[in-house]
Amino acid sequence: MGFMDMLLIIVPSTLLWAAPLIFTAIGGNFSERSGIVNIGLEGLMVIGAFTAIVFNLTFDQTLGSFTPWISLLVAMIVGALFSLLHAAASITFRADQTVSGVAINLLGLGLALFLVKFIYGKGQTDIIQIGFSKVDIPFLSDIPFIGEIFFSNTYYTSFVAIVVAIIAWYVMFKTPFGLRLRSVGEHPMAADTMGINVTKLRYIGVIISGALAGVGGGVYAQSISSDFSHATISGQGFMSLAALIFGKWHPLGAMGAAIFFGFAQSLSIIGSSLPFLDNIPNVYLLIAPYVLTILALTGFIGRADAPKALGTPYLKGKR
Q1: Domains contained in the chain, number
Q2: Of 7, 60, 165, 254, which residue is the least packed, with the fewest Cβ within 10 Å?
Q3: What domain range is 259 assigned to?
């Protein structure tokens, strides 16, 4: 197998697995830049995956080829609404943000499995018939060499995720809203003194994180798993959080880290097709993403300074 042949296998697979992580990591970036720790990304992805699959199965005959995209929109809305629980607990009631995030993870999975059992009478949904499928991007796939590697036999969702990451970078670092959002995560009292509504901006940050995590779960469910069960989302939310930290709370850094973790996840699928991995037992490839996540965070991240007020509830008038 030549180098070009390997690239044609590795790149589309990496982008496929990275897309859900990019959406979710960017969502977490908005929450944590506002000062709210959100380890509930896993539970928000679960809710998004569940919503997208159930909506897809219910309306595929009515909506046709638009079903996966509208399912993502619904998953985004439900994820945003579900994140309000974390926002209310962390911001309004000033509960421990880590405990609240854990509660979101447990509640998301428990609620989704209960509803699956209630609706379908079994532990998992049916397989969707209309999901995201491989495409050749018009015009771009015709570019010599680059087009064949990056824009052929790929998924639209991968490039939507990259565009969202670029937009998030622009919003966060080039707009007044982004400046205000970052200010309440760095020094909320100073922001409050300047007339910035700290509570409002933190709520917005958490809601955006829920919306994008819902999209991430919906993308994963409709492009990779094609159904929903207890194992549909199995650590991807935590990988997204790791990508956020590995990317040093920067949208483009988080995107790069998510692509790296997407490559690690794809190894269990494409490993047998690559000559330098075909003799490695599959079990090692399955655990590779989690091992690389730990190694990345402990050995190669360097100095990563979180927003200074991250995890600290703000009470007006008190330091």
Answers
A1: 1
A2: 7
A3: 3-300
pTM: 0.95
Q: What DSSP element (H or E) covers 33?
A: helix 3-33
CATH code for the domain in which residue 296 is found: 1.10.3470
Confidence grade of residue 192 (pLDDT, cut at 50, 70, 90): very high
Residue owning tokens 């990508």: 243
- Measured distance CA(204)–CA(189) in Å, rounded: 18
* Cα–Cα dist 206/37, whole Å: 9
Find the helix packing angle between 3-33 and 156-174, rounded to 10°.
Answer: 40
Please say whether the beta carbons of 20 and 217 come within 8 A: yes
**311 assigned to some structural domain:** no
Among 311, 249, 231, 269, residue whose Cα is nearest residue 26? 249
- Residue 131 gets the label, from left (phi > 0), alpha (psi -120 to 50) or beta, of beta
CA pseudo-torsion sign 155, 159, 165, 168: negative
Q: How confident is the model at residue 5 (pLDDT cuts 50, 70, 90)?
A: confident
As a whole number of angstroms, the distance between CA 131 and CA 143 comes to 27
User: Rounded CA gap, 152 and 132, in Å?
Assistant: 15
**Is there a domain that residue 140 lies in?**
yes
Element (H, E) at 292: helix 282-295
- Listed in sequence order, the residues at least 6 apart from 167 whose beta carbon sits closer than 8 Å to its beta carbon are none
Whether residue 316 lies inside any domain: the answer is no
**How far apart are alpha carbons 246 and 106 in whole angstroms?**
25
* Pair 18, 161: CB distance under 8 Å: yes
CA 137 to CA 155: how far, in whole Å?
8
